[in-house]
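hiii, so i know i said id send this last week but things got crazy w the move. better late than never?? heres the sequnce for the chain we talked about at the cafe, plus the structure i predicted for it. fair warning i was half asleep when i ran it
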Amino acid sequence: MAIYIDPPVWPGHGRLWSHLISDVSYEELHVFAAELGAPRRAFERDHYDIPSHRYADAVRAGAVEVSSREVVRLLVGSGLRRPKGRPGSAPGGPAG
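okay and structure toks below
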């Protein structure tokens, strides 16, 4: 399993958020997020938005802590990156 999470530094809706990603597949990401209890509406384009109070839960469940820059590098390298405004981008999630 290759699931990664960046630090909760992204502001939105009065909270700080992390990005939870996979460098293998969206299916792997959806399964991990469901097991974590993250709602599907928290999925935005290529990641799940995870509130800061759930960060430690994600790490305990097996997510690897990486920098925000590393999240982008991993997504681009895996071919799973979906930038805003590009085809295949799906709206949703509280923070981007």
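btw Strands lie at 3-5, 10-12, 15-22, 43-44, 47-51, 64-65. thought thatd interest u
miss u guys!!
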